[in-house]
Amino acid sequence: MDLTLALAGLGVGIVVGLTGMGGGALMTPILVLVFGIPPVAAVSSDLAASAVMKPFGGWVHALRGTVNWRLVGWLCAGSVPSAFFGVLLLRLLGDSETVQHTIKIALGAALLLAAGGMLVKAWVTRNQRGDGPAEPIQVRPIPTLLVGIGGGVIVGLTSVGSGSLIIVALLTLYPKLRANDLVGTDLIQAIPLVISAAVGHALFGDLRLDIAGAVLLGSIPGVLLGARISSRAPGGIIRTALVIVLLASSLKLLDVPTPAVGLITGTAILAAIGVAIWRRSHRPAAGPQQSDPLEDDRRESVSAR
After folding, report:
1. Domain range list for the chain
2. Which residue in 49, 79, 165, 276 could disulfide with 148, CB within 3.0 to 4.6 Å?
3. d(Cα 17, Cα 227) in Å, to the nearest integer?
4. Distance of CA 281 to the CA centre of its chain
5. What is the pLDDT of residue 300?
6. Bigger pLDDT: 295 or 203?
7. Is the pLDDT higher at 3 or at 95?
8. Which pTM was predicted?
9. Do 254 and 105 meet the contact criterion of CB atoms below 8 Å apart?
């Protein structure tokens, strides 16, 4: 078993535990770009690993009650069969070099959408309270079903989108959905979705158990570790780093020249640093602390003694 793959799985698992997103969007391009694994094999192996990894996060949200089960039902009604169809469509295209290149392009486009999804989620998290009472929402069955269908096809083809892309669609349909309910609902619906896609790849002979096993060896403890330290870690920094990694990976998969990838990535890093400095400099100063009358009386009595 490749320990380097396990270490990569550990890193991705920690990011997933910290941010709730980024599993397929990070692991698949790492397998393709770093380890030279063919895109179809990378997609199937990542889906198999996600099918085991995602229930850990979903279980926590289910216990906390941050899951909208009606939304889960309608999403799964569309995503589970369409994910299997996405795998079938991938197989119908064949395994030629042209098809592999097409998958890389599709994966790069999906990663760009995933990066956009991360930015939208970060904006919503900043402007939405996650600890207040849940506001009831009116579930819209047909649009939700269509979101599941579209997301399922993309996941079956590329393994990307079970988190980032579907969260963006849910934000569009249900802007009043709390951030923690949004993440919990998406994690739960992603479990049968990635299982369906993984089973499809296994049936058609694409699954590489050695790759999936090595990724799982690191990703499961990584998810648990990331979840434990998520309350202490600076989430904004993690999300920013993840978006930059997604951007660089998508550009590379889209066959953008390496110098251009470096220039764009460097510009994104400088922009992120600039935004962070601007926010820090414009942060409102804390006002003078008001004294506690009871504490003042206690101090006066002590000094009188």
Report:
1. 3-280
2. 79
3. 4
4. 30
5. 46
6. 203
7. 3
8. 0.69
9. yes
